[in-house]
Amino acid sequence: MTLRTILAFFLLLSSYSLFAQQDLGLENQFLVKVSPLSFFEPETIIIQGGLEYFFSNEVSIQSELGVNGGLFGMKAGRGKNEDFRIWRSKSELKFYSKKYYWAIDFFVVNKDFIRIDDHYTPFKREIHYNRARIEFQVFGGGLKFGKQLFISKNLVMDMYGGLGIRSRYRDVEVLELAKFQNREFFEIGNPFAERYRFTGWDAVPQLSLGMKVGILTTK
């Protein structure tokens, strides 16, 4: 994600704040949340949704769940990933001010898939494989800043950005070794591939930036 994209997002967020009030008047009500951008995930299509409950006009809690078709036996995965199965969940405690909100969020991601024609490096030795099973988990949390506003009678736009940290664990089980242990199958320059090329734990910064749509069924 480029700096220009991030700046454009926050300029858009600021422009909305000039014309809308943050008081949504949703005390003791639910918003059904959907995440349109999850359809454009780089590794697989994810269907993600959840609920936000307002204890008051200042405090709410939100929970989400995202899954892909691979969990239900459908063909899923892109590039060198096959039989891709993923589920992820996120919970947030949100605090609203007059125009914006800030939130504390916690999330979990679990992936299980087959990767082909790649390598990984256990014990400082590169091992090339034709096929391997990857199990990948993520646990993390952070702080988020955003804005929600009605764009129609029953639709709410939620735009946000945030920073945090994620702890990742992966296990690689080689199913079929490559005949030649060389760099022929390296996938140079893929920003998503390196995370699968070693085993064990690591920790990396978390940047969240996006939008959701809330559907109000009681107004």
Any overview of this molecule?
7% of the residues lie in helices and 55% in strands. Residues 1-7 and 16-21 have low confidence and may be disordered. It has an eight-stranded antiparallel β-barrel with strand order 1-2-3-4-5-6-7-8. The chain starts with a helix and ends with a strand. It is elongated. It has one helix at residues 3-17, and strands at 30-34, 47-54, 59-67, 81-96, 101-120, 127-150, 155-177, 200-215. The longest helix is centred in the first third of the chain and has 15 residues, at 3-17. It is mainly beta. The chain has a single domain, classed as Porin (Beta Barrel), CATH 2.40.160. It contains one helix and eight strands; from the N terminus they run αββββββββ.
Looking at the structure, the CATH topology is Porin
Task: Give the H and E element order.
Answer: HEEEEEEEE
In the predicted model, the low-confidence regions spanning at least 5 consecutive residues are 1-7, 16-21
Strand content: over 45%
Average of per-residue pLDDT values: 86
Q: Can you give the helix content as a percent range?
A: under 10%
The end-to-end span amounts to 37 Å
Number of beta strands: 8
When the domains are counted, the total is 1
Rg of Cα set: 20 Å
What is the CATH top level name?
Answer: Mainly Beta
Structural class by secondary-structure content: mainly beta
Shape: elongated
CATH architecture: Beta Barrel
Q: Biggest β-sheet, characterized?
A: 8 strands, antiparallel, barrel
- Number of H- or I-type helical stretches: 1
Strand order of the largest sheet: 1-2-3-4-5-6-7-8
